[in-house]
Design a protein that fits this description.
Structural class: alpha/beta
Strand order of the largest sheet: 7-5-6-4-1-2-3-8
Helix content: 40-55%
Number of strands: 8
CATH superfamily of the largest domain: Spore Coat Polysaccharide Biosynthesis Protein SpsA, Chain A
Radius of gyration: 25 Å
Shape: elongated
Strand content: 15-25%
Number of helices: 10
CATH topology of the largest domain: Spore Coat Polysaccharide Biosynthesis Protein SpsA, Chain A
Distance between the termini: 11 Å
Order of helices and strands: EHEHEHEHEHEHHEHHHE
Length: 314
């Protein structure tokens, strides 16, 4: 029998874990064709999540956990789970049940047919404001345009074969975008639709500002096209300056030029703004290079309870 590990990042989920874990384990209990285990990654929670995990791990034989030194972010927590899983396949999912555990048997069925990546994508995002939905759709369109990768409505809810996990963990990047990188690897894949249910317990740790920062990082880590747009801005400014300069020169020769420096001021403001934007954009890419060359570890483990069973060797 093959082994499967559920990797679940958690952050300040002490209150909700007692409600959500039984649902997940009840879904896994009937699965007798694989040896399944659950690995929770505490991403530096500031509440009593770690203490709650210690208690829960004594109640569930198949529950293991890692606790990171501090909050390194969800991408780092996912990587930590992948690097500590020796299983034949892993399933990455959220702990809040907005990734429906009921899809897991279908994921395993597709994997057992030879599919290496089973991706769950959202056909309905549940209760979201129109502003949030607009921003999300705008991000997906921008990502498709700049990175030439279509991950519209994809989620981190994925099943990955061991080969995919090994290749993903070998990638040298420090700043990661999990769903984009898995798609970029190009392994055989299948998609399963799901609707996001309402969250019953706890609150999300993702603020709009965090989501915007994460989206901007994802775009710049997958595409250098924004840097090339600076050249287009420069060409646009040149032609605009040429046209305005020609008009000003004509008025000067015709003797109808008005006094003042309105045109000059507008040109200075326009060109200055574009230069500041260009320098800022270049700075973003330089900052990413700086983060990569420091080669600091992506995560540090503070506490670990992990002893995974292996399939019998014949």
């Amino acid at each position: 029998m093959k082994t499967v590990t559920l990797i679940i990042p958690v952050f300040n989920e002490a209150t909700a874990l007692e409600q959500h874990l039984p649902v997940i384990f009840n879904t896994l209990a009937p699965l007798t064709t694989v040896i399944w285990q659950v690995l929770l990654i505490d991403d530096g929670s500031t509440d009593n999540t770690l203490e709650k995990l210690k208690i829960l791990s004594s109640q569930y034989d198949n529950l293991q956990f890692l606790s990171l030194n501090r909050n390194f972010g969800k991408e780092a927590a996912i990587l930590a789970g992948l690097m500590h899983s020796p299983s034949d396949a892993v399933i990455v999912m959220d702990s809040d049940l907005q990734h429906p555990p009921a899809l897991i048997p279908q994921m395993l069925a597709l994997w057992q047919q030879g599919i290496q990546v089973v991706e769950a994508y959202k056909v309905s995002r549940g209760k979201e404001s129109w502003g949030s939905k607009l921003l999300v759709q705008g991000f997906y369109r921008m990502f498709r345009l700049l990175a030439e990768i279509d991950i519209t409505n994809h989620s981190d809810f994925k099943l990955l074969d061991k080969q995919v996990v090994e290749v993903y963990c070998q990638l040298p990047e420090k700043k990661r975008f999990f769903r984009g990188m898995i798609h970029w690897l190009g392994f055989s894949s299948a998609q399963l639709p799901f609707s996001v249910p309402a969250r019953e317990y706890g609150t999300t740790a993702w603020s709009k500002l965090k989501l915007l920062r994460f989206s901007f990082h994802a775009l710049t880590s997958f595409s250098s096209l924004p840097l090339q747009l600076i050249t287009l801005f420069g060409i646009f400014c040149f032609f605009l300056s040429f046209i305005i300069g020609g008009i000003a020169l004509y008025h000067k020769v015709a003797g109808v030029a008005v006094s003042g420096f309105t045109t000059v001021i507008l040109l200075i403001l326009l060109i200055g703004s574009l230069l500041m934007f260009a320098l800022g954009l270049i700075g973003v890419y330089i900052a990413q290079i700086y983060d990569e060359i420091k080669s600091r570890p992506i995560y540090l483990i503070n506490w670990q309870k992990s002893h995974f069973s292996q399939p019998d060797q014949e």
